[in-house]
Specification:
CATH class of the domain at 33-82: Mainly Alpha
Number of strands: 0
CATH topology of the domain at 33-82: Monooxygenase
Strand content: under 5%
Structural class: mainly alpha
Number of helices: 4
Shape: elongated
CATH architecture of the domain at 33-82: Up-down Bundle
Low-confidence stretches: none
Radius of gyration: 15 Å
């Protein structure tokens, strides 16, 4: 494994894992007031396109990282859509 591969895997791991705290917090509290629907919609669409791009290139690291990120971003987006009416001051 080359140094560039190590940096790529480390970057993918950190950026993917960064969504876990938000997803867990939102799941536990159901508080979605601080989550931007527009931002998460655009981000989720972008990650889906990255996943397709990785698939088109046959690049497994891109596909794996973006599949996991897409799952987490979709979970947050679904919670935003589901709980936005239940949260006061929305």
């Amino acid at each position: 494994m080359q140094l560039t591969d190590i940096f790529g895997f480390l970057a993918a791991t950190l950026t993917t894992a960064s969504f876990i705290p938000q997803a867990l917090h939102t799941f536990r509290t159901k508080d979605v007031r601080g989550i931007s629907l527009g931002m998460y919609s655009a981000f989720t669409a972008g990650v889906a396109l990255w996943l397709v791009y990785g698939w088109m290139l046959g690049e497994m690291p891109i596909m794996i990282a973006n599949a996991i990120t897409l799952s987490l971003a979709l979970a947050i987006l679904v919670m935003k859509l589901r709980y936005h009416e239940d949260t006061p001051n929305q």
